Amino acid sequence: MEPESAVTTCYRHPKVESYVSCTRCERFICPDCMREAAVGHQCPECVREGARSVRRARTVVGGRVSAVPMVTYVLIGLNVLAYLGELVRPALVDRFEMLGAALTGPDGGLYVWSSSYPAGFHPTGVVDGEWYRLLTGAFLHMPATEGTFGILHIVMNMVSLWNLGRVVESQLGRIRYLALYLLSALGGSVLVLLIAPATPTVGASGAIFGVGAAYYVMARRLGADMNAVNRFMAGLLLWLVISAGLTSWQGHLGGLLAGAVVTVAYAYAPRGGRRPWIQAGVCLALLALLVVLVVGKVGALA
Fold first, then answer.
1. Structural domain range at position 83
2. Is residue 161 in some structural domain?
3. pLDDT for the residue 38
4. Fewer CB within 10 Å, N or C, the chain?
5. Across residues 30-46, what is the average pLDDT?
6. 190 and 114 share a domain?
């Protein structure tokens, strides 16, 4: 009688015959469990174990590399959703736009701010503790039938964010990029509060100017061809001048300055274990400065 042949089965699927073994653990695996390796095949467990031992790629500033600019997509989505909300309920603009100081009258209308006001009027804006306006205004845009640009306001801003944001997010990593965007938006609103507190403003332009500043700083840091980058910055600065007569130049300039400060800290912090702490420290210091400026201005207005 001939000896009975031994049958080998997959260690994960005992009922499936298998004649291929994992090159790392040498356990038999079926076609469903085979994972391509540099040499032969590996089982799912060995693949996961190997992935844990591989260091994730980092950007030049220390952020995690991600192939999909998810933060940019989310920011664009939030701006578009807010705009659709405005179309359905226009009162959202008055409720959440960036407004430093105004008076709401008995008729519900907004009036020019004065620290002394008659009965029936009450303060409105950051001066009345509505600090959320410093950020919510950066996600709103001019209604389609109002302002100099109408619907072009959000269209131009979102196209700019699409073009710039994807590049800068890939250079910084998601967390650093989000911090840059929010601090730039806040920087723009704070400069509006300091210079033109009674002027209602909306738009993501301040944050986008901050992203534009990051694009320039990172291009220099990475040694890119600066000819095209310099032309872009010249156009951005030209628009800053032109916008002085059309839109809130204070928001643009504040976002540009805040974005530049944050990105310089990102790009030129020394390598090593201290780098994330230095970068975070600069961001927190800028945030603290902006808070102090807001408190001081609100105190002066009141």
1. 70-301
2. yes
3. 73
4. N
5. 84
6. yes
